[in-house]
Structure formats: C-alpha cells, structure tokens
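Narrative of accomplishments. A recurring question from our advisory board has been how the design workflow behaves on a single, concrete structure rather than in aggregate. To address it, we present the structure tokens for one chain from the evaluation set, followed by the sequence designed for it. No filtering or post-editing was applied between the two.
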C-alpha cells in the first residue's frame, strides 16, 4: 500500500503538540510513514517562549520513517500555513493526511486513513476522508463508514485531484450560493456553516476549512466518515485560535480498525439526519443555558 505522508501543523501549544505526536507514534504504520511538521513563527513576543518550546520538542521527535520540520520565518497564520503546506505535499505525493496540534488519534488512525485513501482513490465523487466523527446517535442499521456532504478538519485526508478544486475566493461563494443551496449546505439550517464564509468576508475570522467544504460541495463531492471516531479534539480548552472551552464534541476513540468500506458512493440520508439532530441538540442546549443564566441573573437582582 502506498502510504500517505502526514502533515502536522503546530504553533504555540507544546503540551497539546506532545499529546498529538505521542498518540500518532503509537499508530501501527507510524514507523513506515513520512511526517512533515510545520511550525509557525511567533506572532508577537507573548508567543515567543511557547513557540520556541514547541520547536525544541519537534526537533527531537523519532518513530517515523522520515521527519521533515519546516520552521516558518514569519507568522503565516493557521489558514495560510495549511493551504501552503497541503498544496505542496499533496502535489508531490498525490495524497496526504493532515493533522493539527490538538488532535489525539486512535492507534488505528493511520491504518483507516491509508486504507480509505487507497480504496476510494479512483472515485472522483469521494473528495475527503475524515478521521473524526461527531458523537451522533447510532442506529442499528449504521455501517462502519458513511458518506455525507460536510467535511471535517479534525484529522482528514485527500488526494491531489480533489485538492486541486480548493478555492478560497470569498466573493465566488457569495455569488454562487443560492438560498436553497445555503439551506442544504447548512444541513437544513441546523448548523451555520455558511456564516463562516460571511465572517471571513467581514474579516472577523480568517479560516480555511469552510472553503474546503464549500469546494467539495460545489463539485458535488462527498466526505467519508467513520461510525466511531479515530480522532479526539483536545483543543476545546480555550487554548486554540478559533476554539472556546467546551465538551460537546467529546468522543471515545475507535479501539478496533474498521474492516469494511462501502462501494455505494452517495450521501447516507440516515446519518445526515443524525448529524442534523446532533447539531440541533447543541443549539437547543445552548439556548437553554442562556435562558438559565438570564433567569439566574434576574433572581439575583430581585
């Protein structure tokens, strides 16, 4: 099997980076895989010490077939660094597995990702392999893997022909999406995906992943997801750039490898509904918390 190179993007979180690397080292294919580590330069003096600590750590990593460390000489920011790194590596190797510095993987993560990349390499409709799956409610008919339209940036993989369609031109999407498309893109408005494009337009955020989903969506592509997650995000502790503190995305890692892939490359309606129900439950829970806080404040003021 042609193993995909791994790209790991780091910045100023030494503890998170170490957890990510140590979990990856336990993967059964780690010693046969090439690892590229991108270290972004400090944005300001406040980040200097932690960036240097990360760089000292990644200089001494072992356990992989080959390790290449790319230390940026200026602060690129996560979005630009990922776009640049993924583009260069996938164009050279034809496929890629991508991680950020706050993702703990199952020991079967690399096995699943590489087998999926090989199995679907000739399926043009399949553009994205996700190692992460939200903690949705499982149904008795659920298969080991399923397809839905949304991508996930928490441990993913793709091929050069798919990534070639990546487009982060905000005005293109603002003019391309109709209201009907936005409704579908947002999973029947249960998740505000398209709002991220609007926020990028307003320069409130600077992200890359929403444009990957939009690129896949407009191409009519699909994203493969596992029934149980091979990735856990440990960055929702307030330490990330775009992540607050939350436990709503917590998952248990897949303890056994998936052994079956489906040849039916179409969106799974049952799992799409499960995702919609999950996102709706998050919204409902958030509203309840807000109301609870308001009522508590009202009582305190009486």
């Amino acid at each position: 099997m042609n193993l995909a190179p791994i790209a790991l993007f780091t910045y100023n979180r030494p503890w998170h980076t170490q957890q990510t690397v140590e979990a990856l080292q336990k993967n059964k294919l780690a010693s046969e895989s090439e690892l590229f580590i991108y270290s972004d330069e400090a944005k300001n003096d406040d980040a200097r010490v932690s960036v240097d600590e990360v760089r000292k750590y990644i200089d001494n990593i072992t356990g992989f077939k080959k390790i290449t460390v790319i230390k940026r000489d200026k602060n690129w920011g996560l979005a630009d660094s990922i776009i640049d790194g993924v583009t260069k590596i996938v164009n050279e190797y034809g496929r890629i597995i991508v991680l950020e510095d706050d993702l703990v993987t199952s020991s079967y993560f690399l096995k699943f990702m590489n087998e999926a990349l090989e199995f679907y390499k000739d399926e043009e409709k399949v553009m994205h392999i996700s190692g992460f799956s939200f903690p949705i409610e499982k149904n008795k008919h659920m298969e080991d893997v399923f397809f839905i339209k949304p991508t996930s940036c928490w441990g993913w993989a793709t091929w050069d022909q798919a990534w070639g369609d990546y487009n982060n031109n905000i005005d293109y999407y603002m003019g391309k999406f109709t209201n009907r498309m936005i409704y579908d893109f947002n999973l029947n408005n249960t998740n505000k995906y398209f709002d991220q494009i609007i926020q990028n337009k307003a320069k409130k955020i600077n992200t890359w992943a929403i444009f990957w989903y939009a690129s896949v969506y407009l191409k009519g592509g699909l994203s493969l997801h596992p029934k149980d997650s091979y990735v856990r995000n440990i960055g929702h502790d307030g330490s990330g750039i775009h992540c607050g503190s939350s436990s709503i995305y917590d998952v248990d890692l897949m303890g056994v490898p998936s052994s079956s892939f489906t040849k039916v490359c179409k969106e799974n309606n049952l799992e799409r509904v499960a995702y919609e129900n999950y996102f709706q439950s998050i919204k409902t829970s958030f509203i309840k918390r807000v109301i609870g806080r308001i009522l508590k404040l009202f009582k305190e003021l009486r």
